[in-house]
Amino acid sequence: MNTSTPFHFAQRAARIKPSIIREILNLADRPGVISLAGGLPSPNSFPVQAMRDATERVLRDAPQQALQYASTEGFGPLREWVAADLGTQGIQVDASKVLITTGSQQGLDLVGKVLIDPGSQVAVEAPTYVGALQAFNPYEPTYLSVAGDDEGPLVAGLEAARHARFLYMVPNFQNRGGRSISDTRRDELAARAQQLNLPLVEDNPYGDLWFDEPPPRPIAARWQDGTVYLGSFSKILAPGLRLGYVVAPTSIMPKLVQAKQAADLHTPIFNQRLVHEVIRNGFLDEHVPTIRSLYKAQRDAMLAALQRHMPASCRWTVPGGGMFFWVELPPGIDALAMLPQAVEQGVAYVPGGAFFADNSMRNVMRLSFVTVPAEQIDQGIATLARVLREAQDPSIRLAA
Amino acid sequence: MNTSTPFHFAQRAARIKPSIIREILNLADRPGVISLAGGLPSPNSFPVQAMRDATERVLRDAPQQALQYASTEGFGPLREWVAADLGTQGIQVDASKVLITTGSQQGLDLVGKVLIDPGSQVAVEAPTYVGALQAFNPYEPTYLSVAGDDEGPLVAGLEAARHARFLYMVPNFQNRGGRSISDTRRDELAARAQQLNLPLVEDNPYGDLWFDEPPPRPIAARWQDGTVYLGSFSKILAPGLRLGYVVAPTSIMPKLVQAKQAADLHTPIFNQRLVHEVIRNGFLDEHVPTIRSLYKAQRDAMLAALQRHMPASCRWTVPGGGMFFWVELPPGIDALAMLPQAVEQGVAYVPGGAFFADNSMRNVMRLSFVTVPAEQIDQGIATLARVLREAQDPSIRLAA
């Protein structure tokens, strides 16, 4: 009789690790801690009444269909809605190129599953989205970080990535300093990638959350045959429904669909019908602007708080949309090492190092301005500034 | 400018293929075809009113929590409910060993992701569940089919599987002839697997659907440290919600949770809260028996139809639960080759060959008695018998 564990892990399991963000969220989830860490949409933005009405209609008009197994590709009318919506952004697709996923995180997993071999190179921005690294890691890629400037990844950097399986980008409000990739740079990146035969994966969860002007049209609109595009309803409706989508060229769509089928058969059809029922008559045209103005006000509150409290040695760019400030700390400060003190004193954030696949930058933190209300933002930033001043005290800095 | 596709598939993509069942469902999805193919629960069994009431309560009492991001492991009270329910079946676990998944199909995918290397051996029953093969395939295992008899897989067959990463079993109503693994055999299998240090994966979607007496207690109850157990709400509530769960030993639970996080962050919390709200006050104690008697009546209808119409050369066992008859055809008949004629004449089924990982048996078909009502069952079986008689006509048989 053997009492040790009989399980033998696959090699890839060594690359499956807890997300640092999730760990921090757990850490921060205690009374008295103001969390600027998670990318949690403001609960005040959830359209509860519209959801309630839509649920009632779905369970009245199509209860059996909404509760039965359904097709892997997704609910037809929702796929059509997505295709039409993308058309307004310059991506010309029909519904057959839209796959509904269980959140866009699943889209990332499917892309990794279908395109990454152990040892394959995957090119990413610096910083990139840590959840994407987590999705790709089980497929055991190596990462190449493409250097960038204020307009986005440098076109010259693509040459080195020419053998990568793809270049993954979050074009809007998630780049250096919360910036977006500029219109010109998008043109240049698409053209150069096409020359190099380097596929692109464009992940756009934040594009609708602009404050002053909409972002340039998606990169996918500039090279459709070479770009996989991912979208999400998490930030404009509600993340708890787990609804996202992948738009992919005909050459890889069938494999993505089959991989999706193997992964969870289909995205909950109840949720798909519910969301379609909410949005089909133009609801988002009125709803999304209310999120924009809510988030813009909260961005302004955080900006004011940063200006009021933070040491002069910290730098940030004012984000034109999205959910985050990226704050650069003085070079000697390790944001990860400082986190326990911060949580201890009542504020949490995400250390920026996790967003650099090459671990190249540790003196940066990501602060969400959308999750907690304005007055807590001010209090949180004040606390953070205090922690930072203590960390700059040499005695504490050495101890950290 | 390169116009060919720039995408390069991962090697595993060659193993990602359409499910034959899904293909058949598409084929059968046209007017006039009676489908005995899909494992679709009867829509008459969906508790629409209870769902409606629960939705209202969830969106009234906890709308912001139900629509926000949530923990990867699952909704605490639902995990506790599952743990308590398993306790009544002899599996003693606390909630920390329960991971809520996006349908139990996702549980299979996660198990494969964490445990299967390319070339790993995975042991399965013959027949096994084709969806499990589909979930495991992307991780590139080889399969070893363990021979069985009327009581289940042969214990002597485990020796050959001793280097397998695990033995996958569906213990209830899915084995040879729709049988379940007997109580004695479960004891023997658990004991022998433990001696051999061979992990077990027990997939139990049908266990609650017994007609005469409940199945023996789960194999997991007999060797908890070596068994991963999968359950589902699809067959007792509604599959369109995609809610299942994995119960796993402490030695592998963290990796499963982290793999789940990478795959879709978490299962829709709205669905989890909804289901918990439906079931928390004993609803299933009244609801499941109504499904049992509905399905038992439909089983009886199919049995009567088989006896009335089918050629004497066909054999079947009367299933004591679940959703399917397994009908063995005369040796020369290939159920897959016969399918187009059957669909042409208005009836669809699943050729049994797909359920044999070693492709060892082609003269068998799986017939669902739960999806279509009794009168259609009779008509469908009558058509099937006619197709079969024609197929047995030597001229047609050669042409097939």
Q: Biggest sheet of chain A, in brief?
A: 7 strands, mixed
Helix content of chain A: 25-40%
Q: What is the count of β-strands of chain A?
A: 15
CATH topology of the largest domain in chain A: Aspartate Aminotransferase, domain 2
Sequence stretches where pLDDT stays below 50 over 5 or more residues of chain A = none
Task: Quote the average pLDDT of chain A.
Answer: 93
Which of globular, elongated, flat, extended, rod-shaped describes the shape of chain A? Answer: globular
Largest interface: A-B, 89 and 90 residues
The side-by-side strand order for the widest beta sheet of chain A comes to 2-10-9-8-7-3-4
Question: What amount of the residues of chain A lies in strands?
Answer: 5-15%
Instruction: Give the name of the CATH architecture of the largest domain in chain A.
Output: 3-Layer(aba) Sandwich
Which structural class fits the helix and strand makeup of chain A?
Answer: alpha/beta
The quaternary structure here is homodimer
Please report the first level of CATH classification, the CATH class of the largest domain in chain A: Alpha Beta
Euclidean distance between termini CA atoms of chain A: 47 Å
Rg of chain A, Cα atoms, Å: 21 Å
Total domain count of chain A: 2
Total of helices of chain A: 13
